UniProtKB/TrEMBL annotation:
This is Pirin. Its cofactor is Fe cation. Keywords: Iron, Metal-binding. Binds 1 Fe cation per subunit. Residues 27-125 form the Pirin N-terminal domain. CDD domains: cupin_pirin_C, cupin_pirin_N.
Length: 301
């Protein structure tokens, strides 16, 4: 199948707006995956579009059993964990974090000199059961490492993970196979994006309005697709005044139960109980949390 032509576009199963809510310390998020409208859409557990201003953020907290993908749209975010890893992701960068058997970390957006909010997307992805006990790891993906393809003068696509118009991303960014495509479409522009057969997929509108087939999607809408086609088609009509920007995400479906308690994800209630006990007792993966406090979170204490 040509990567610039789709035999059969997928149909839309649902479209809804991500409602803004509080999260962390002083942060606001628009959550679309992980709500009553879309829960445990394997392998996806949560998608937050976050906005953080001033001294606020996501201080020391634990994870187990999943991966997180953080895509920074504006500003800088410092991160630090109990393994000794620390660093900063800048605008346009991503961080792929595998919690595995357990990690404690902090993610703190830097206050902007102009007072603007630090913004980005954070996607939680389930881990296959056989990998839930793996050691935690990080992979920062810098914007310079992300290939860009321009199928026309009205479309620019950042191939974060996966493939678009014959251009492939860097490989092995996450344990669970996930594609992520960031497309900006000008009025008069059109994209045809194939997706792997059988994978679940959705698209989140960051900016502007667009057409997905004949359906109008607006800013902060999440478009959820059925698995009945080869990919998706999107366009911005000539008479629209603004560009549209959309992130298309697809992931391999995991054949396993999903039991989640906050930042702990397992395949049974018993495993969740074990995760809570291990976190409280600082055992079986959380030993390094004992007496550990991040430096970066102290700025809001």
């Amino acid at each position: 199948m040509s990567l610039s032509a789709i035999v059969k576009p997928r149909t839309i199963s649902k479209l809804f707006v991500a409602i803004e809510q509080s999260e962390g310390v002083g942060a606001r998020v628009r959550r679309s995956v992980g709500t009553a409208r879309l829960r445990n859409f394997s392998p996806f557990l949560m998608l937050d579009h976050f906005f953080v201003s001033g001294k606020a953020g996501f201080p020391d907290h634990g994870h187990r059993g999943q991966e997180t993908i953080t895509y920074l749209l504006h500003g800088q975010v410092d991160h630090e964990d109990f393994t000794g890893s620390a660093g900063t992701i800048d605008e346009g960068d991503l961080q792929f974090m595998t919690a595995g058997r357990g990690i404690m970390h902090a993610e703190m957006p830097r206050p902007q000199k102009d007072g603007s909010a630090v913004t980005g997307l954070q996607l939680w992805v389930d881990l296959p059961e056989k990998l839930k006990g793996c050691e935690p790891r990080y992979r920062d993906l810098r914007k310079e490492e992300i290939p860009i393809v321009k199928p026309s003068d009205k479309v620019e696509i950042k191939v974060i993970s996966g493939e678009s118009y014959g251009v492939k991303s860097l490989q092995d960014l996450a344990y669970t196979p996930v594609w992520m495509i960031d497309a900006t479409i000008k009025p008069g522009g059109f994209i045809s994006q194939p997706l792997p057969e059988g994978w679940n997929a959705f698209a989140y509108v960051l900016e502007g309005d667009l057409l997905c087939g004949t359906t109008v999607a607006k800013q902060y809408n999440n478009i959820v697709f059925d698995r009945d086609g080869d990919g998706v088609e999107m366009s911005v009509p000539d008479n629209y005044e603004k560009n549209a920007r959309i992130v298309i995400v697809a992931g391999q479906v995991l054949d396993q139960e999903v039991v989640q308690y906050g930042p702990f994800v397992a395949v049974s209630k018993e495993k969740i109980y074990e995760a809570v006990m291990d976190f409280q007792n600082m055992t079986n993966g959380f030993e390094r949390a004992r007496n550990w406090e991040s430096k970066i979170a102290k700025m809001i204490r």
